[in-house]
């Protein structure tokens, strides 16, 4: 079952996202893992965050998550993290997430599926559900140069590479796809 996330999903969503955070090797997350976890858990309980999240359930358990937002909200979301950072012993000028989105796109920030459910098409279902939950016509995302499996998946789904960016110490392809109501 696909549904919009709610504040009570915070813990399981963060557990699923931990796979991504580990792969990204962000220095700030390695230096302050518990503080970052606590910050992310609190911010996920904010409606502007969880309302931009879709989860997929199997056997009444969340096993997949997709988080995104309109590019126009990126600065507001990042400033919210920065405002809360000192509460967790983190610098106020915290640069947890770089400017990752491109103008006029709905930015797919993160997508993760529990290891036991990978390879079953759940990520594809989450992406296909975007128009059901959000007013979206152009979706953008970043995929690590080293993650060829994800690159192939996104290309198979119709995303195309439109540029590159660096996040932390990793290079990423920026990919986009136009979404139409009948996609």
TrEMBL record:
The lineage of its organism: Bacteria, Bacillati, Bacillota, Bacilli, Lactobacillales. Residues 1-183 form the N-acetyltransferase domain. SUPFAM superfamilies: Acyl-CoA N-acyltransferases (Nat). It comes from Bombilactobacillus mellis. One of its GO terms (molecular function) is acyltransferase activity, transferring groups other than amino-acyl groups. It comes from the Bacteria. InterPro entries: Acyl_CoA_acyltransferase, GNAT_dom, YpeA/RimI_acetyltransf. CDD domains: NAT_SF (cd04301). This is N-acetyltransferase domain-containing protein. It holds the Pfam family Acetyltransf_1. Keywords: Acyltransferase, Transferase.
């Amino acid at each position: 079952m696909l549904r919009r996330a709610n504040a009570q999903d915070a813990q399981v969503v963060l557990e699923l996202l931990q796979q991504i955070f580990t792969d990204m090797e962000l220095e700030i997350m390695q230096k302050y893992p518990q503080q970052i976890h606590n910050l992310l858990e609190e911010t996920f309980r904010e409606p502007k965050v969880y309302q931009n999240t879709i989860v997929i359930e199997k056997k009444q358990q969340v096993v997949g998550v997709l988080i995104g937002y309109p590019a126009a909200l990126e600065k507001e979301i990042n400033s919210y993290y920065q405002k809360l950072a000192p509460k967790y012993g983190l610098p106020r000028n915290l640069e947890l997430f770089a400017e990752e989105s491109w103008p006029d796109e709905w930015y797919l920030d993160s997508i993760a599926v529990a290891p036991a459910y990978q390879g079953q098409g759940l990520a594809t279902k989450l992406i296909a559900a975007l128009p059901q939950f959000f007013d979206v016509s152009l979706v953008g995302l970043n995929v690590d140069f080293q993650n060829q499996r994800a690159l192939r998946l996104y290309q198979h789904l119709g995303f195309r590479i439109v540029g590159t960016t660096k996040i932390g110490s990793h290079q990423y392809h920026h990919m986009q796809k136009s979404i139409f109501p009948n996609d």
